[in-house]
Design goal:
By secondary structure, the protein is mostly helical. The protein has one domain. Strands 1-2 form a two-stranded antiparallel ribbon. The termini are far apart.
C-alpha cells in the first residue's frame, strides 16, 4: 500500500485527463472584478484629465478609493472613536469593510476571487511554469521568515495607526490636504513613475513568474490582514480521511503549497479558498469547503454568489445611505490639483 501511494505521488500529472482545472466560476468572478477595476481606472483617468484640461465633465468613480487601504484603515479607527463616517473617501472604507467581511466568513476569498493583483500574480506563475516547466520552490527554512515580512509590514502600519494616532491626529490626516487628493496623487505616481519604482515593479513581476504568488505570499500587507482575519472564518477546506486515497493531487495543485493531503481541516492563513484542491480531488465528497461540520459543502457557485453578494450589499447600502460619493466639489478638486506640488500636499507633512 505504501509503495502504491508513493507511485501515485510520483506519477501525478495535474494536466492528466480526468483532473479538472481551477473552477471556471472563479475565473468568471475574477474577470468581473478585473473589468470593474479597469473601467473604474479608465473613468478616473478621464476625470483627472477633465480637472487638468477641462472639456466635457466626467464624474469621479468612487471605487478608485479601494486602492487607498491605509486611508481606509485610518477612517475605520476614526469612525470607531468618533462615530464620524468621514466623507472624504467613504467608498474606500465601505469596500475595506466588505473585504474584511469576506475574509471573516469565506477565508481569503478576496485574494483569489476579487483582487486584480492576485489574478495577475496567479497567471504570472502559471506562465512561468509553462515556460520553465516548474516554479522555483523556496525551502521551508527560508519560506517561513519570508512569509513573516508581510505581517511585519502590516504591523508597522497598524501600530502607527492604532497605537500612535489619536482622534485629533486621524482627523488632521483624513481632512488634510494630502488625503483629499490622495487618489489623484496615487494615479500620477504611476503616470510619472520614477526609474527606481519601475525597476522595483519589474523585479516583483519577474520574481512572480518564477515563484508562486511572490508578492501576495511574502510582501502584501493586505493579504496579511486577510490571512489573519481568515483564521476566524467558520468555512475551511475539509478532508475526509476515510475516503481519501492519499494521491496528493490536492497538495501538488495548491498554489499556497499547503500539505492538504495530511490535514483534516485547513486552518492555514495562506489558504485563499481558491478551491483548486477541491477541483482536482478524484474522490467525490472527500475534499470540500465546509462551514464547521455541516454536511453540505459550499460549492464554487455558492462561494461566487456570496462573494458578489457581499460586494453588492455593501456598495448598495452605501449608495442608499449617502456613503459612497465623497463631498469634495469639482471646484475644490480643480483648486487643489493646481496646488498639489506644494509642501502641504506631501504625505510627510502630516
Amino acid at each position: 500500500m505504501a509503495v502504491k501511494k508513493i507511485m501515485n505521488f510520483q506519477n501525478l500529472k495535474l494536466d492528466k485527463p480526468g483532473y479538472k482545472k481551477s473552477p471556471g466560476i472563479r475565473l468568471a468572478v475574477q474577470l468581473f472584478f478585473l473589468f470593474a477595476t479597469i473601467y473604474t481606472g479608465w473613468r478616473f483617468v478621464l476625470f483627472v484629465r477633465f480637472l487638468q484640461e477641462g472639456g466635457a465633465e466626467v464624474s469621479r468613480p468612487p471605487g478608485v478609493e479601494a486602492f487607498l487601504p491605509i486611508s481606509s484603515l485610518m477612517a475605520l479607527k476614526y469612525w470607531v472613536l468618533t462615530g464620524d463616517f468621514n466623507p472624504i473617501h467613504p467608498a474606500g472604507l465601505v469596500l475595506f469593510l466588505a473585504f474584511v467581511v469576506m475574509g471573516l466568513f469565506l477565508k481569503r476569498t478576496f485574494c483569489t476571487w476579487v483582487c486584480p493583483v492576485g489574478l495577475l500574480s496567479e497567471y504570472l506563475w502559471k506562465g512561468g511554469r509553462k515556460i520553465f516547466g516548474k516554479n522555483l520552490a523556496i525551502p521551508r527554512w527560508l519560506d517561513y521568515p519570508l512569509r513573516s515580512l508581510k505581517y511585519l509590514i502590516l504591523i508597522f502600519f497598524a501600530w502607527g495607526i492604532f497605537m500612535d494616532m489619536g482622534a485629533d491626529d486621524l482627523r488632521n490626516f483624513i481632512y488634510g490636504p494630502y488625503n483629499r487628493i490622495a487618489d489623484i496623487k496615487m494615479m500620477l505616481f504611476f503616470v510619472h513613475i520614477t526609474t527606481f519604482s519601475l525597476v522595483v515593479i519589474i523585479v516583483l513581476i519577474l520574481l512572480s513568474v518564477v515563484i508562486k504568488n511572490f508578492w501576495c505570499r511574502y510582501l502584501c500587507p493586505y493579504g496579511a490582514l486577510m490571512g489573519f482575519i481568515s483564521l476566524f472564518s467558520p468555512a475551511k477546506i475539509t478532508r475526509n480521511p476515510d475516503t481519501c486515497t492519499d494521491c496528493r493531487a490536492c497538495t501538488e495543485s495548491c498554489p499556497a503549497s499547503i500539505q492538504v493531503h495530511s490535514k483534516t481541516r485547513i486552518r492555514s492563513d495562506e489558504c485563499t479558498a481558491c478551491l483548486t484542491c477541491t477541483s482536482v480531488c478524484p474522490e467525490p465528497n472527500t475534499l470540500t469547503f465546509k462551514v464547521y461540520n455541516h454536511k453540505k459543502p459550499l460549492s464554487a457557485r455558492t462561494v461566487a454568489i456570496l462573494v458578489v453578494l457581499i460586494f453588492l450589499l455593501f456598495t448598495g447600502v452605501a449608495r442608499l445611505t449617502g456613503h459612497w460619493q465623497n463631498n469634495i466639489t469639482t471646484e475644490e478638486y480643480k483648486s487643489r490639483i493646481e496646488q498639489m506640488n506644494n509642501p502641504e500636499y506631501e504625505h510627510t507633512a502630516e
